[in-house]
Amino acid sequence: MRDIVVLSGGVGGARFTRALRDAVEGTGARIRVIVNTADDMWMAGLRICPDLDSVTYTLAGVNDEQRGWGRVGETERVSAELHEWGIGWPWFTLGDLDLGMHIARTSLLRDGAPLSAAVAQLAARWELGAELLPMTDDEVETHVVTDDGTMHFQEWWTRHRASVPARGFQMRGAEAATPAAGVVEAIAGADAVLVAPSNPIVSIGPILAVEGIREALAATAAPVVGVSPIIGGSVVRGMADACLTAVGTATDAAAVGLRYGARADGGVLDGWLVDTVDAEAVGPLEAAGIAARAVPLWMTEPDAARTLARDALALADSAR
User: Kind of pairing, strands 271-274 and 291-294?
Assistant: First the structure.
């Protein structure tokens, strides 16, 4: 049985994880997904976990593909009522079905369950074909440093659409956080570790910031292969370019791979997939000790997405 671990966050990570699950269906492979939880926050007394929910809904087939977040067929009566009472953020609307998830999760947390146990119980509602592991059971939240102070990542991302120039990012709580149950063991026992085409700064970055996870990646016998979230100098989805600019990294497939770095030199990667339009990036990446391949990265339809997942596994096999 092949044991595959995915580091994931955001819509791109959720869709890549779904493609991977579909690509290995029937092979007996086991997939465990370590999910970013630094987008999380408390709102209206509820613990909101956007990336965990995106992965869950996408694997369950109940996500809203058009919006890219939330449940399909949503209504928003409860959010509208909360806003009438002045509760919550008026620019951050939660659907009624989505609120059901947040209420259930918060109830479990209030009863003393760690986040990882709550995730396992909630995910059991659907046949996901993968095991979801939050990066930590501790509370970690990303805050954005601007010229006028700091704000929660969700305010910068959702309210301002990353239009306020960021000067840096703080992963508050990460310095004291420990990996959630099963995370280090999953990495240690993996046959392949895949870094999804997620935002490298605010989706994958917080995972790597939890002490013990980067160390587990350095020690695992499994090859670590990533998929570029940048194609032809542009982000595939979202506003990762604003995040990269803030930390002085070009919006470029090679630059992101080099930022992760070669595992042989203390970085994260053994291999990195770039799109065919970025084939010129292969040389610099290989020179830096990262095995690179140029393949189609656009997950425009299911067959293309599954092929990408297989390409990532093939690169892992060759980098082993």
Answer: parallel
Alpha-carbon distance values, 210 to 22, 138, 263 (Å): 29, 10, 17
Rounded CA-CA distance 312/295 in Å is 10
268 burial (CB, 10 Å; 0-12 / 13-18 / 19+) is: buried
Is residue 212 packed enough to be buried (19+ CB in 10 Å), middle (13-18) or exposed (0-12)?
middle
Q: Is 66 exposed, middle or buried (0-12, 13-18, 19+ CB in 10 A)?
A: exposed
Task: Of 302, 285, 305, give the one whose Cα is nearest residue 197.
Answer: 305
* pLDDT confidence tier of residue 319, bands split at 50, 70 and 90: confident
CB 225 within 8 A of CB 193: yes
Percent of the chain's residues with pLDDT above 70: 100
Assigned token pair, 10: 């955001």
Q: Provide the pLDDT for residue 1.
A: 57
* Mean pLDDT for all residues in the chain: 96
Domain ranges of the chain: 3-138+173-319
What CATH code is assigned to 3-138+173-319? 3.40.50.10680
CA 126, CA 109: separation in Å to the nearest integer? 20
Backbone angles phi, psi at 269, to 5 degrees: -100, 145
